[in-house]
TrEMBL record:
The keyword GTP-binding is assigned to this record: no
Lineage of origin: Bacteria, Pseudomonadati, Bacteroidota, Bacteroidia, Bacteroidales
Keyword Cell cycle appears in the UniProt entry: no
Highest taxon, organism lineage: Bacteria
CDD domains: Ribosomal_L18_L5e
Subunit structure: Part of the 50S ribosomal subunit; part of the 5S rRNA/L5/L18/L25 subcomplex. Contacts the 5S and 23S rRNAs.
GO cellular component: ribosome
Gene: rplR
Keywords: Ribonucleoprotein, Ribosomal protein, RNA-binding, rRNA-binding
Xref: InterPro entries: Ribosomal_L18 (IPR057268), Ribosomal_uL18_bac-type (IPR004389), Ribosomal_uL18_bac/plant/anim (IPR005484)
PANTHER family: 39S RIBOSOMAL PROTEIN L18, MITOCHONDRIAL (PTHR12899), LARGE RIBOSOMAL SUBUNIT PROTEIN UL18M (PTHR12899:SF3)
Protein's name in the database: Large ribosomal subunit protein uL18
Role description: This is one of the proteins that bind and probably mediate the attachment of the 5S RNA into the large ribosomal subunit, where it forms part of the central protuberance.
Source species: Alistipes hominis
Amino acid sequence: MSLNKVERRARIKLRIRKIVSGTAQKPRMSVFRSNRHISVQLIDDLNGVTLAAASSRDKEVAEKVAGLNKVQVAALVGKLAAERSVQKGITEVSFDRNGYLYHGRVKMLADAAREGGLKF
């Protein structure tokens, strides 16, 4: 019996989360992608705390999205996430693509975060 799209992503997500975990020094950078928006959180899994976050719904990004496609918006979110994490003293993260393919918006977000100063 074949899996539907949600079940397939859930399986991939569990397979990734067995390996990727975050600490206070090297948090997990978790990406969530919906049809309209994209968001990212830097999570300390040991304490269960979100250290920093950025989304396409944040004011700083929402003002700039007019006329941009979703891939370009993902790049803005990646830069904002990197900016906020560097302000908090976080420079190294573990990237969690959350079951999504490393392609398109997820890849653009990761590349922009690297340009912003994050290492992963």
